[in-house]
Amino acid sequence: MKKYLTSALVLMTFFLQASCGSGVSSQPKEEKGIIVYYKNNFDQDLGGFRGARGLELDLSKSEIEGKALEATVKKQWKGPGLSINIQGSKDLRMAFMAKGVQFRRATLNVFDNKANDNTTPNGYRFLPDDRWVPVLYCLDRFRYNGRGRDYVDGDTDYSGMRFWLEKLPKTGEAKLFLDNFVVYRGPDTSPPDKIEDLKAKAMADGVRLSWSMPHDNAFPMVYAISRSRDGGPFKKIAETYYTEYLDRSCGSATCTYRVLAVDFENNIGEWSNVVKIKGKAPIQEMKFTVLERDRENYAEHVREIHKRGAGKVNKGLVCLYGDSLTGPTIYPYMVAGALGVYKVNAHGFAGVTTGWGVKNLEQQALSKDNPEFLLVMFGTNNVRGRMRDRKVFRGWVNDLLTIAKKAEAQGIVTILGTIPPRGFKDSESKPEAVFNKMLVEAARAHKIPVAYVFEEIQKSGDRRKFIWRDGVHWTPKGMEVAARAWAKTMRQVEFVLRDAE
Prior knowledge:
The protein is of the alpha+beta class. Helices cover 25% and strands 32% of the residues. It has helices spanning 2-11, 290-309, 331-339, 354-369, 380-383, 390-409, 430-445, 453-458, 476-497, and strands at 18-20, 23-25, 29-31, 34-40, 55-61, 67-73, 81-87, 92-101, 108-112, 117-120, 133-138, 143-144, 157-163, 174-185, 199-203, 206-210, 220-229, 235-240, 244-247, 254-263, 275-278, 314-323, 343-349, 371-377, 413-417, 450-451. The strands form six sheets. Strands 3, 4, 5, 6, 8, 11 and 14 form a seven-stranded antiparallel beta sheet that branches. The protein has a five-stranded antiparallel beta sheet with strand order 7-13-9-10-12.
């Protein structure tokens, strides 16, 4: 750390003044174990971000807190840019909240003077339309646009970065919103400060909570809300990216609340002060999704496994493990794009079965990565579109349970994915559907999270858009659907883990 700080003070000075919650900084700053090069919440100004022809920049009200940078992009390949001067890619990170309106991915380039080439993420983070999401990029996992290497050199000389629009929309405007933008050298192990000013107000439609964003060496990413009803135990009820929340399920009970902040590397802060209030709104009926019901079932087990791996696994690393469906080069990039804040590695092998997965788990995945999360999908080469005796299916499902249990023994949280449909003649893909049903039942019995890949593809329309003509492997669109299925389950797992006693 001292080596990086010394070089930072000599070589890494900004060409701009960056305003942020902790004041104005013109040079890198060491804070709680990281070096911060740029930090801006956009409440005062654009912080050095600039536009060009075909781009309009402004500050707009942010639902998160205060103001946000708003970029209206009117030409393809255009977007907001920032001048920087940072040496070395090792452990360099860029984190921010983003929202796109017809701006589908957080596409950007970071220019390396030494290579005279732009570097770019291998997996652009997805931006769901008109919804804030957190983004964390590790710049040492970027690639050069003009080279065939997987990752950039360690000895980089970054001079600027720029977001860009992939494709102009046919109608309407394309907009990119950014908030709580920070560039730092990590890893970050320090949680946000405790929230000191939680307030509650009984409204006609529920209890409205509000608080101020606490200080963090980077920025808070998300907030966890916990509630006690009528003196009962506290239970986490929600997460939000905003500094306010409306609880519609307190009813007329006396509810006590507390809130904590979590940063971009999932460091969890302390619970805030508590506030007690009597509600005055009718309880709105809660409708739970399949994923939420699953979460209630596996929550305690997943917390136990994750606690077992604390300090032993590679925090922030996700490993994909499976057959040829896991093997395509762009597949892990799609999953990284959907997950948003994780590093993703993939180990996929053509033609292999569940039994192969059991025998080779340690050598091919665990010993190489020792990840925080293991996402497993085998079975396509077992089922092969044919109905089998249930005992045969059960044996293959047991293989998947064995993989999960082996990983869990090392403190690795495991998610099992249902296998995609096969072929085009059978719209229900019955053999795969039966196998998947048995997999889901077994996973629930053993309190293992499930990602519903099969179900996501089935409800997305014509399978020919998602499965190649061979009826087995998926197209890029199919990989994206699968990535979103993994992400939906990961959101529930994160909900479980972003909590404190």
